Automatic annotation (TrEMBL):
This is Hydrolase. It comes from Sulfurifustis variabilis. Keywords: Hydrolase. One of its GO terms (molecular function) is hydrolase activity. Transmembrane segments: none annotated. The keyword Secreted does not apply. Residues 33-152 form the AB hydrolase-1 domain. InterPro entries: AB_hydrolase_1, AB_hydrolase_fold.
Length: 316
């Protein structure tokens, strides 16, 4: 398999760098994929997830780029000094959107592509969604893996509200551990997270007693997420959301978006939501990554290769 460096220079003069995995010769279907790093991390993805996806998709006709935005990995530039949590919040607000759209435009022009899909995990998923909503004339689809729907704030986690779904999930886990000697040993040693236990018990009791009416927006909710999500849905831009069943991002998404905004519907006119049971946030095991690859490839084939989705005209 041939892979090659991919570079482009931003308006600030700094060079962004990545790796291009071209479609296998003679098999290109005209669709390109830009895989984004998870937040502030390197372009290869957790446990080389982006590398694995690129090398799985290229032989069946997809051209895949994985790149580092300015200040990340091997790209020029530097991120501003400050607490990591504050930097994460700038990602959730769109720090890497411009770089992402620049990369997408260059990829399309250099490789003669007709369709483009953006994708990423966690912060990368947020960037992909925000970028697609800003440039519907350029982006044809979005893959969101364990996306974040709330902000990383300076508030201590103990003070953040816990939703019913996460409280129920945590409470069931604690009940299962009641007969586990190791769990009691952690309590005796003082190793348990007592603040999390307290938050879980309080949230569970409130839920059982009948919670007050839920506000339309939570204080830590990223409003741009839902605005961008709804923008894609209105424009019928295919959007695949894949969650790990054992990830707090999935519990949070159910509480903030799925139940509040989508009426519990796992599919709409353009979005589809799928869950990989038992997987963790970074899809650590090969079986979990393989299931992600299969679901993503199936969605791509249905939406872009076999569906007859209109091919975008190339600019002169």
């Amino acid at each position: 398999m041939n892979e090659e460096p991919f570079e482009f220079r931003g308006r600030d003069g700094a060079v962004r760098r990545g790796i291009l995995t071209p479609a296998e010769p003679g098999r290109s279907n005209g669709t390109g994929i830009v895989l984004l790093p998870a937040g502030l991390k390197y372009r290869i993805g957790p446990h080389r997830l982006n590398v694995t996806l690129a090398r799985r998709l290229a032989p069946v006709g997809y051209t895949v780029l994985r790149f580092d935005p300015c200040g990340v990995g091997e790209s020029d530039g530097a991120l501003p000094a400050g607490p990591l949590r504050e930097l994460w919040r700038t990602v959730e607000q769109g720090r890497f959107v411009d770089d992402t759209l620049h990369a997408a435009r260059d990829l399309r022009e250099r490789c003669g592509l007709q369709r483009l899909v953006l994708g990423g995990l966690c912060g990368g998923a947020v960037t992909a969604l925000l970028a697609a909503a800003l440039a519907p004339e350029l982006i044809d689809g979005v893959l969101s893996i364990n996306t974040a729907v709330t902000f990383s704030t300076d508030t201590k986690p103990a003070r953040r509200p816990m939703g019913r779904i996460q409280a129920r999930h945590n409470f069931k886990g604690y009940l299962r551990k009641l007969l586990a000697p190791a769990a009691w040993a952690r309590i005796v040693r003082g190793d348990s997270d007592y603040s999390e236990i307290t938050r879980t018990v309080v949230a569970t009791v409130r839920s059982c007693l009948g919670a007050r009416r839920r506000p339309e927006h939570l204080s830590h909710e990223n409003a741009r997420f839902m605005e961008s999500f709804e923008s894609l849905e209105r424009r019928s831009v295919p959007h695949l959301l894949i969650f790990s069943g054992n990830d707090n991002r999935w519990l949070e998404f159910q509480e903030v978006v799925l139940q509040r905004r989508l009426g519990g519907r796992l599919a709409g006119s353009a979005y589809e939501i799928e869950v990989i049971p038992n997987a963790n946030h970074e899809l650590h095991f090969a079986d979990w990554q393989r299931e992600l690859e299969e679901r993503f490839a199936d969605w791509l084939n249905r939406r872009f290769r076999d569906s007859g989705r209109p091919v975008r005209a190339m600019s002169a």
